Amino acid sequence: MSLWDTLRTAIHSLRANTLRSILSMLGIIIGVAAVVSVVSIGTGSQQVVLSNIAQLGSNLITVFPAVPRGSSGRVQEEVRSVFTVAMAEEMESRLPDVVNVVPVVTGRGLLFAGGVNVQANLVGVTPPYVIVMNYAVDRGRFISDWDVSQQLPVAVLGSELAAELFEDRDPIGQEVIAVVGERRQALRVVGVMAPRGQALGGDFDMQLYLPVSTMMERIAKTRSVSYFAAQAVASERAGDAVEQVRFFLTRRLGDDRRFRVSSQDQLLETMSSITQTLSIMLGGIASIALLVGGIGIMNIMLISVTERTREIGIRKALGAKRRTILFQFLTEAVTLAAVGGVIGVGLGWVGAQIIGHYGGWPGIISSESVAVALGFSAGVGLFFGIYPAAKAARLDPVQALSYE
Amino acid sequence: MAVMFAARDVTKVYDMGAVQVHALRGVSFTIEGGEFVAIMGPSGSGKSTLMQIMGCLDRPTSGTVVLDGEEITRASDDRLAEIRNRKIGFVFQQFNLLPRLTAVENVELPLVYAGVGRKERRQRALALLEAVGLGDRVDHRPNELSGGQKQRVAIARALANKPAVLLADEPTGALDTKTGAEIMQLFAQLNAAGHTIVIVTHDPEVAARTHRIIHIRDGRIVRDERLAPRPGPAAPGAAGERPPHAGPSEEPALEQGVAGP
User: Fold this and answer.
1) What is d(CA B17, CA A144) in angstroms, rounded to the nearest whole number?
2) What CA–CA distance (Å, rounded) separates A13 from A9?
3) Cβ atoms within 10 A of the Cβ of A216, count?
4) Are A25 and A340 in contact (CB under 8 A)?
5) Coil vs helix vs strand at B100
6) What are the two backbone dihedrals, phi and then psi, of residue A73, each rounded to the nearest 5 degrees?
7) Cα dihedral angle (A388, A394, A396, A401), rounded to 10 degrees?
8) What is B101-146 written as a DSSP string?
């Protein structure tokens, strides 16, 4: 019996019981759709996260205070009160592979301009901030060294913040009143940043940037720095730079548990391993649906073999060999699974488009994931089809013929 | 004419756990090419078992069966399937057509298993349906056909691979008398055209339409009755005549007589 005849026979049998065939495919359809869309969501969101990190700036190193463990009887220290501006200057001058160390002081406040008020983050920085963060000025200028040394009350606005405060008017030269806690401070706008978008740790476009000295002395009234942002001199020196920062801060603070240093590379690695783990986990859960679909196919095939015992007997009496019957039923199972797989890929693609639309990433389906899903579903059909097909092939022709 | 079937000391024992059922207790006979034979006996006599063994659907417990010169007793399952496909045409009481296939597709089935190409098998199937008088019913499914028509389709299917022998198991059992007579007429025509035909039946009227009746009871042949002379160029007399003594046979007839109208 030729392959083509076998396939035709299988399709004929499946079409004779269309509803049942579709229902038994449903498990595979759902499984494949789930795998395809989950993998697409995984890669899509990973792309977004990784490009966000990459955007942060090349060779970025961040140093955050860590929460020290409070042991019994000793109260945990305030988290932020560990870093100073002096440390930033020292790191800049002493650590050979570290440049552009920016002490950053953040705080939340209310901004007034004209009749409008907006809640926003105030970020006290030094001029290299734009280099470290790979951030561009759209209009006017950024914070200068003079601003910092003189504690001048100047501000640079994120693009969205500027639009919210001043709408169509030109913000440059205008005054913004910042209210943080009890204090009010008038700031003169000297620049507006280019749009940047969401990134790790907040929305750049909704922040107000001002000299770190102005922030510390006039607004936050603090002597400690929220975190440091710095750069390695070159990407291949990033590991050394991190080690140098760690060594320096451990000596200075007497404890390496009071801060966390991470380079952009490490961040990328961590994030991609997190999203990868997530993808594998979700894909694993989705492939359980495929497995269940396979069991559904086996179930239907077993019922079908029992129902068609007499047909099998007739076919054997007419000269069908064991392997002919085996292939016939195996072909039916694989056809069910493969057709289900194709429909599942289609549904998965639609699902990926919809979710990608809302998630803000392209609903791309890789050819690998399609190939894997189709191959896997055909494999599932083959695996779960073998037992029923072998059962059919083994039937004794005399008994099969007399089956009622 | 050459020997078509030669059975020697064929026994069949069904092991039903505690009990052993002896369906055949040593059966020997010879059927030559071109013969028209009935195997007759009451239910439980072993005639169906005998037909299953002759049709290569089952193997005997002991003894040998030679079909068309080939020992089938020890043939492999695959070889038996090939023999069923090429050398045997089955006609069943319940027709055993595949309900989802049309008449012509049913007739094509043995040709599909024989590996005949699509065009040729369609041609042959249509010609066979024409020959059994169903040229205008080729695209009907079994449930759109009458009993007699279904049996004609089954006969056409049995003839598809030009088999050495037609084996019919109670071919008129599910038909009314008139239709049954028509089917027997068709068998007679096929025999006249040279086909070897073996019919298993419990009905003396059906058996009487054949040329030789092998009576079987309790797993043994009790009588081998010849109603018409052996076919072949040397056969004396015309078909339909029933001389009291047929030519010499390898199995001497246990009893000669006339049965049925």
Assistant:
1) 102
2) 6
3) 21
4) yes
5) coil
6) 85, -15
7) 30
8) S-HHHHHHHHHHHTT--HHHHHHHHHHHHHHTT-TT-TT--GGGS-
Beta-carbon contacts of B59 under 8 Å, excluding residues fewer than 6 positions away, are B53, B73
Q: In degrees, to the nearest 5, what angle opens at C-alpha A310 toward C-alphas A304 and A316?
A: 105
pLDDT 10s digits, A2-14: 788 888 888 888 8
pTM for this predicted structure? 0.69
CA end-to-end distance (rounded Å), chain A: 27
Q: How far apart are CA B50 and CA B8, in angstroms?
A: 12
**In the predicted model, what is the mean pLDDT of residues B3-20?**
90
Residue A27 three-state SS: helix
CA-nearest of A150, A143, A108 to A125 is A143
Contact B199, B54 (CB under 8 A): no
Closest CA to B137 of B163, B185, B102, B93: B102
| Closest Cβ opposite residue A318 in set B52, B58, B113 | B113
* Residue of B21, B84, B112 to mutate for A, most A C-beta atoms under 10 A: B112
Placement of tokens 């196919």 in the chain: A297
Closest CA to A25 of A332, A388, A389: A332
Contact A55, A135 (CB under 8 A): no
pLDDT at B249 over 60: no
Cα–Cα distance measured from residue B101 to residue B103, given in angstroms and rounded to the nearest whole number: 7
pLDDT digits (tens, 9 = 90+) for A84-100: 888 899 999 999 999 99
Residues found in chain B: 261
Note whether B208 contacts A: Cβ–Cβ < 8 A: no
Residues of B in contact with A321 (CB under 8 A): 77-78, 81-82, 113
* Better pLDDT: B251 or B4: B4
Q: Please name the member of B77, B84, B112 whose beta carbon is closest to the beta carbon of A317.
A: B84
A234 CB neighbour count, 10 Å cutoff:
13
Count Cβ atoms below 10 Å from residue B237 Cβ, excluding itself: 11
Q: Which helix (H) or strand (E) holds A238?
A: helix A238-253
Q: Within 10 Å of residue A113's Cβ, how many Cβ atoms?
A: 22
Please give the residue of chain A at the shortest CA–CA distance from B99. A311
Cβ contact B96–A320 (<8 Å): no
Amino acid at B65: V
- List the structure tokens of B145: 């056909």
| Beta strands B36-40 and B196-201, pairing class | parallel
Query: If we measure between CA atoms, which residue out of B133, B142, B31 comes closest to residue B95?
Result: B142
Closest by Cβ to A5, choosing from B55, B112, B157: B112
Contacts of residue B142, Cβ cutoff 8 Å, sequence gap at least 6: B95, B97, B98, B99, B103, B106, B150, B153
Categorise residue B255: left if φ over 0, alpha if ψ from -120 to 50, beta otherwise: beta
Q: Nearest Cα to A130, choosing from A58, A39, A36?
A: A58
**B93, B59, B86: which is closest to B73 by C-alpha?**
B59
